Amino acid sequence: MKLIGNLQQFGRALMLPMMALPAAAVFLSLSGLPWDDWGMSPMAGHLTKAGEILFHALPYLFALGVALGMTGNAVAAGVSALAGMFIYTAVTGSYAGLDIQPTVLIGVVIGIAAGYSYEQFKDFRLPEYLQFFGGPRFVPLFVSFVSLAFSIIMIEIAPPIQDGMAVLGEAAKAAGGFGVFLFGFTYRILVAFGLHHLVSHAFWFQVGAYETEAGMIVYGDLPRYFSGDPSAGAYMAGLYPIMMFGLPAIALAIIREAREDLKPKVRKTFISAALSSFLTGVTEPVEFAFMFAAPYLFVLHAFLSGLIMWLTYELGILHGFSFSAGAFDFFINLHLSTKGWMLLPIGLAVGIGYYWLFRWAIQRFDIPTPGREEGSPLDEWAGDIPYRAPLILQAIGGKDNIIQMEACITRLRLKLHDDKQLDVPALRSLGAAGVIRLGGGNVQIVFGTFSELIREEILKVMKRDLRRVQFKSPVQGRMIPLDEVPDPIFAGRLVGNGVAFVPERGEAAAPVGGVVIHVHPAKHAVGIRTPEGLEVLLHVGIDTMELNGAGFLMFVKEGDTVVPGQLLLRFDLGHIRSAGKSPVTPMVITNPERVRSWVFAPYTAVKKGQASVMSVVLEERDGGGERR
Q: What is the pTM of this model?
């Protein structure tokens, strides 16, 4: 499993350099406009050069991107990768009679070498008089020698490697439509693990060779397509009907099958997800809505994706993209396609088929897609990202549990000291569509297209290092705002500020750690003072003091030290209700003047001990000196 975790990190690193390709595609598309008629003749040449240079620089971009992606954006690793590429290009290009050009594969290899070397030598120590060249500064020196040795070896083995690449391209071509089907099916399945970039990289940047008019050889379906290869685009064209029509149709089916009371929220969320897929080709927000609820349906989706790609291949349709198969890329690159217009009617048919298939499946198998059950993370919370970041960080296990945190388009990619500290229910209530454990502490949390923003806000929280107290849920049930407590004293925040819970089971646990400072004689309420000086009251039920302890069993006494999640008391819900009392349980801070700011999780179902239900920042920093 550790291998899978390393592969998902490598797959994320491969995405970094591809971020430059949309600009290249736009430049090349704009170069075809009638600039001569507008009196701006040189503009076409400028745009062409700007687009072509990005494709020619792909090996360097991949070397840099892979090195940065594997090391958490370590500058020393990136500089080392670029130095290695310059050395490789200079050495291999100095031998007459050998046509050795830097390729994306070479860039990836040198990027891996730079990233691995950084991890091995970032703490490397030399004698004191040489320590200037120790640590990260040693990495460029070491990688330079490795690149020189690698270049000399490549001079000897380049001819058979080039022959092998040609054979690989011919094998892919010989596989025909079935090979395209296998690519489409495998690519879609690996989306679940965040490893789809591994298989796409091989076909989009390695399989097949084409010699440009300038005499340069480019490899892979994507560079060949933009270099004018009339046979390129087979491994990209079939993705357009899926991303532009199939996934949006699934989103519409999910909206249609949602409960009427939740349909407005579902519509708002999934119209956005459908547009994201249609316009940009970002599909995970839709796919993760049913991937965990019905994995077999995702496998069927992957199978259909492969069949659609096979169909477009057999029809001779060729199309390409610089980023993904969305409408933006479709129209920008349509002028380079072969029969590209046919993807639109095919896509409409695919969309209709997907819509009815998923509506039938959701109804037939009662699939709990968002909007069909309580507790679905459907809140429109993009503006709440700074507000929720502290809660997400707590659900991850806190900053001390994070070794590395990166984000791709739709998910946080984390390496943790202990992935058992993850609170999955809390993450789901905070908007996560799914959590994937890949072993070795490697975890992916799917937050959709807000993932990068979430990462940035979490980093800000970690850097601020404010004096913060995090609260766990004391009961299993549903969290509600204090305003909904059926008691004017608590609802009016006269006792203090906080939240409340409607318990489903008769157990209450400590929401925070600290010392028990009060146990009510009626055994229905407990007060805890945290190490930071907050006084927290947990009050089970409204007017339950009148029960005089009947139905309550206390497990702590005044002066006891408790830890978060420790059992405080048991209570008989049936007895409370039969006595005509409300079981609503407020959890309030009775000295709220000590609190500078409050953060509350969404008011949804919670489990006992679930992290991230409330977070507060204290009025003073550690040391008590600076007021906030």
A: 0.60
